[in-house]
Amino acid sequence: MPLVNSKELFKKAYDGGYAIGAFNCNNMEIVQAITEAAKECNSPVILQVSAGARKYAKPVYLKKMVEAAVEDTGLPIVLHLDHGADFEICKDCIDNGFTSVMIDASSKSFEENIALTKKVCEYAHAHKPYVTVEAELGTLAGIEADVKVEHGAESYTRPEDVEEFVKRTGCDSLAIAIGTSHGAYKFKPSQCTRDPKTGVLCPPPLRFDILEEVSKRLPGFPIVLHGSSSVNQEYVKIINDNGGALVDAVGVPEEQLAKASKLAVCKINIDSDLRLAMTAGIRQDMKEHPEHFDPRQYVGLGRSYVKELVKHKITDVLGSKDKA
Ligand SMILES: [Zn+2]
Questions:
Q1: How far is CA 301 from CA 33, 130, 225, in A?
Q2: C-alpha 197 to ligand 1 mean position (Å)
Q3: pTM of the prediction?
Q4: With 0-12 CB in 10 A as exposed, 13-18 as middle and 19+ as buried, what is 46?
Q5: From residue 97, how far is each of 24, 60, 173, 185, 314 by CA, in Å?
Q6: Distance 257 CA to ligand 1 centre (A)
Q7: What is the DSSP code string of 149-160?
Q8: pLDDT for 149 beyond 70
């Protein structure tokens, strides 16, 4: 099966009450870990590439690695541009075989966001084959690639805007802000409560009222959540036990993401959790085996941790197991 766009996958996910994992990748081991996990779970999957990943690995390498994964697994795989900042980067990806792009004009005014998103949609939809477009309304806190939004400067999506936005732009899916956040430090300690027993931070709950209101206004329309790593504490502990220093790293609880997956949310972006699993494996191998100097030894353990994590997400959070 060749690369696919997200249209059919989202329709099935919406109707089936599950979400598809959109995992960021920037090297071979991460691509392999994600797609081998998806293969073992017989799950569709979205591999997404940020501007930072394009800069790090070069677009041609990323494209060829994802094609290799398609050939190796036979799964329905979407190659998606994460956080396209302007028309040019979206066009470049569309012209070079991406099957889906995000235009993120969420930091611009409502009218400017509409104008730019519409321009990308017209170009992407005229392409043969059809390329799907994700847009964003509302702003998330946190850091991703070159995008940094201070806590307090984020803004929830206004449900009263969504129908007009989707109608005027023609976008295929919409990322909304309901309290998720980019990075491994999603919330300030002052926004959280602290578990008295474990000392672990408990973040504020997601705004399911906004999600409900949005989906009421856009029946059948796929919603996307960015910044949805859970910062699983088992990996934070391995990292910190092996020389790392991640203090008060906190994510979105998996139960809340599992709940969102059953609703209108069809795509959940997970990046930081993969980074943490990879780092945990590398740190553990290096600490336990100071004699190792073959990157396959420590990167290999990192890859196996990422694979386990993705299987867990597909099975226990997204609900996309056996949906390929
Ligand atoms: Zn994002």
A1: 11, 38, 29
A2: 32
A3: 0.95
A4: buried
A5: 17, 10, 19, 34, 26
A6: 15
A7: E-TTS-B---HH
A8: no
Domains, the chain: 7-230+247-270 (3.20.20.70)
Query: What's the token pair of residue 321?
Result: 């197991």
Tokens found for residue 159: 């449900």
State the amino acid at position 98 in one-letter form: F
pLDDT, tens only, 222-242: 999 999 999 999 999 999 999
Residues with CB under 5 A from ligand 1 (ion): 144, 226
Q: For strands 223-225 and 265-270, give the pairing.
A: parallel
d(CA 280, CA 240): 9
Write out the catalytic residue numbers: 82
Rounded-to-integer distance, Cα 257 and Cα 273, Å? 14
- Going from the Cα of 60 to the center of ligand 1, the distance in angstroms, rounded, reads 22
d(CA 196, ligand 1 centre) in Å? 32
Q: Dihedral angle at the C-alpha atoms of 144, 149, 151, 156, nearest 10 degrees?
A: -100
CA separation for the pair 23, 34 (Å, rounded): 7
The strand pair at 147-149 and 141-144 is best described as antiparallel
pLDDT computed for residue 148 by the predictor? 63
DSSP secondary structure code for residue 250 in this structure = B
